[in-house]
Design a protein that fits this description.
Number of helices: 9
Order of helices and strands: EHHEEEHEHEHEHHEHEH
Strand content: 5-15%
CATH architecture: 3-Layer(aba) Sandwich
Shape: globular
CATH topology: Rossmann fold
């Protein structure tokens, strides 16, 4: 797609029907992942009742260590970087080595787990597809760190990329799940700190709201094949609010959104977080920030990471590449009018 055509796109696009690979992945997730997460949630609830202090010292990010065996795509250069409070790395595909564009990427985590290893292969694909360098950020996680500290790491990463000589109009912030929250809040924090806002944001299956009711409503309409609702409640109560003792920071839909570059929001039609996407899109539109919502039939939570076996994921990454071309080709605050509401197949 020629990137200027984004201006003429409807605000909401439906991609479907799902491929057989996406359908099979959905069944596998329902049988294996959802069941496993439900069991672990029950165990966590019991442990939190017996030993809440111990739960607040849990290192759920340790799951990322064995994932170091998940390799980046062949030919990708991976260069570790140590930021003041967290690790990061440059992930650069062969086609991106001379690029002046950067995607600052925040991995999904539910704010408590995963890391650089779990997402290295995906961000290497993102670099290859977009022709941009990717700065992969291993921000601090709960329960040892709060959301504010994680966002501080995001801002530090953005400053690092700016200090490396890249200009804001050639930088896109991106993330999946809780990483989508990180991308949005980092853009807001950068703007409020007087830094130039990034060219755009890409949010995939993003957690953007602390409103549990909209998640419950989504879960009651379509069963999420990945997450049971009680898992979200557990993470919210035990880790995000530290058993009700910590207030959450302002979430993106509650913030002043003016002055940000355009957003691409991708979500599956049966995800529990789909209402987070719709609420944020409505707030962005009201603030005059261009945004496009893509709803993917039977798209799993973070389905883009399954690109090796899922043609729908590869198509979604292609859409991201087109959007990055668009966002970095226009000035963020001169990106055209907010698209009209509509839907195409």
């Amino acid at each position: 797609m020629n990137s200027p055509e984004w201006r003429d796109r409807p605000a909401q696009t439906y991609f479907g029907p799902a491929s057989w690979q996406a359908r099979l992945l959905g069944v596998a997730a329902l049988v294996v992942l959802r069941t496993s997460i439900a069991v672990l949630t029950v165990v966590g609830l019991v442990m939190n009742r017996i030993w809440p202090a111990g739960m607040q010292r849990a290192r759920l990010d340790l799951i990322d260590r064995p994932m170091r065996y998940i390799r980046a795509l062949p030919g990708t250069e991976v260069t570790p970087v140590r930021l003041p409070d967290c690790p990061a790395e440059w992930v650069v595909a062969p086609a991106a080595r001379d690029s002046d564009r950067v995607i600052v990427y925040f991995h999904g985590s539910a704010l408590v787990t995963l890391g650089l290893n779990s997402h290295r292969r995906f961000v290497s694909k993102l670099s290859a597809a977009t022709g941009a360098k990717v700065f992969n950020v291993g921000y601090r996680l709960a329960p040892l760190a709060g959301i504010e500290e994680a966002v501080a790491d995001g801002l530090c990463a953005y400053r690092h990329v700016l200090d490396a000589g890249f200009t804001a109009d050639r930088i896109v912030l991106a993330g999946d799940s809780a990483g989508g929250l990180m991308a949005a809040n980092t853009a807001l924090t950068a703007r409020d700190a007087g830094l130039p806002a990034p060219a755009g944001q890409v949010l995939m299956s993003a957690l953007t709201s602390s409103d549990m009711e909209i998640k419950r409503q989504a879960a009651s309409t379509h069963r999420d094949p990945f997450f049971p609702f009680m898992a979200f409640m557990f993470l919210y109560r035990v880790y995000a609010t530290v058993n009700g003792t910590r207030e959450l920071p302002v979430m993106p839909p509650e913030a002043e959104l003016r002055g940000l570059g355009p957003f691409l929001l991708q979500v599956g039609n049966n995800e529990m977080l789909r209402n987070d996407t719709f609420v944020l899109a409505d707030k962005l539109t009201a603030a005059g920030v261009p945004n496009w919502v893509q709803v993917w039939d039977r798209g799993l939570h973070m389905f883009q990471l399954t690109f090796d076996v899922n043609p729908d994921a590869r198509r979604a990454i292609g859409e991201i590449a087109d959007f990055v071309d668009y966002a970095t080709a226009v000035a963020p605050r001169d990106a055209g009018s907010v698209p009209v509401t509509g839907e195409i197949a």
